[in-house]
Amino acid sequence: MPGPVPKPEAQRRRRNVPSRPPVKVAAGPPGAELVWPPPDPAWPPLVVDAYDSLKVSGQATLFEPSDVATARLACEALSRILASERFGAVGFSAAMSLLDDLGATVGSRRRLRIELEKGAPPESPGLAAVRRRRAELRLPDPGHPRQDRGGPDRRPVDRARLHWPGEREPATERG
User: Fold this and answer.
1) Is 107 within 8 Å of 64 (Cβ atoms)?
2) According to DSSP H, which parts of the chain are helical?
3) In the chain, at which end, N or C, are there fewer CB atoms within 10 A of the end residue's CB?
4) What is the domain range of residue 83?
């Protein structure tokens, strides 16, 4: 699909129905787990990192055995290109195109209409206990960006009376 990278689905405003809805195909046999062969020991560390990162990427849940074979093929091509004395731009472009077909970058995932949702990191038990105790004592949560910064009686601070130390107090309206 030529042109700019599409926006994430949540940021798109559509007034029409998508021209091509996603095609749904039954996956391989149920319960069959995907087998990732170990990386070739002759591959450079950069290529091994790329191969290992594909295994744990979010889109890997959609992979089939043919996708694993394509990933190995792309990594083998990259390792040969990086090991050769002359850098082959055409070969490198072909290997990167294979990786794009697998959704290795954000742009390629958007073109393929794959969106990965990242959940919030789990809160540590110690931090959760501190937050509960602060709530019991009705103390403001310093980690919350929009707390009223009032005193113990919870009245908001009069911002007109705030000034830097050494400055005169701001003039107040008399009336």
Assistant:
1) no
2) 45-56, 65-83, 89-101, 106-111, 125-136
3) C
4) 33-111
Tokens of 51: 């191969």
Residue 65: partners with Cβ closer than 8 Å, 6 or more residues away? 28, 34, 35
Q: Specify the pTM.
A: 0.55
Per-residue pLDDT of the chain (175 residues; tens, 9 = 90+): 567 777 776 677 766 666 665 545 455 555 467 889 999 999 999 999 999 999 888 888 888 889 999 999 999 999 999 999 888 899 999 999 999 888 888 888 888 777 777 766 677 778 888 888 888 887 776 665 555 554 455 555 555 556 566 666 656 555 5
Q: Which of 100, 107, 41 has its CA nearest to residue 67?
A: 100
Please give the Cα distance from 126 to 143 (Å, whole number). 14
Start-to-end CA span in the chain (Å): 68
82 in Cβ contact with 46 (< 8 Å)? yes
CA distances from 161 to 4, 167, 168 (A): 51, 11, 10
Domain presence at residue 39:
yes
Number of domains in the chain: 1
Asked if residue 7 belongs to a domain, the reply is no
